[in-house]
Design goal:
Number of helices: 6
Strand order of the largest sheet: 1-4
Helix content: 55-70%
Structural class: mainly alpha
Radius of gyration: 21 Å
Distance between the termini: 67 Å
Largest sheet: 2 strands, parallel
Strand content: 5-15%
Shape: globular
Length: 150
């Protein structure tokens, strides 16, 4: 019988939640959607896909999306952390949507809110996304001012 020391391994599990990530794949999906032949679809479906889904898809990724490199940097920080959190969001702009997910275990609340934002309050939704995009642009611009030019 082997009489060795008992070995205890500590394991951590972290859920990394990025939200929308801008990648070549995402760009290709959008471009293919723009070129899609909708002649076989009924007029209402084609109009909703083009003027609601694709328009909002583009705005969401432009306003809330982050690069794969940003997600990778967050992932490395979590892996190297001495005491990593159970959940980590890489994109604080996406926090309201994930908060809705936690508030409603069956998942109806975030879907209902998103539906209402897109179909009932589309002008406010669009203005909010444009405002977020402006704030992100201004913060990057002011951050870049301190860097030496190359």
């Amino acid at each position: 019988m082997w009489m060795g020391r008992s070995v205890r391994a500590a394991m951590w599990l972290s859920l990394i939640e990025p939200g929308p990530v801008v990648t070549e794949f995402e760009r290709k999906v959008f471009e293919d959607g723009m070129k899609m032949d909708l002649s076989a679809a009924d007029e209402e479906t084609a109009e909703m896909f083009t003027n609601i889904y694709l328009k909002n898809y583009k705005q969401i990724f432009q306003s809330l999306g982050q690069s794969a490199e940003d997600v990778a940097e967050h992932t490395v920080k979590i892996i190297l952390a001495e005491n990593p959190p159970f959940r980590h969001q890489t994109n604080t702009l996406y926090t309201p949507m994930t908060t809705l997910k936690y508030a409603d275990p069956n998942g109806d609340l975030p879907i209902d809110i998103f539906y209402k934002m897109v179909f009932h309050h589309d002008k406010i939704f669009s203005a909010s996304l444009n405002f977020i995009k402006l704030l992100r642009w201004r913060s990057r611009k002011s951050f870049d001012l301190g860097k030496p030019s190359q």
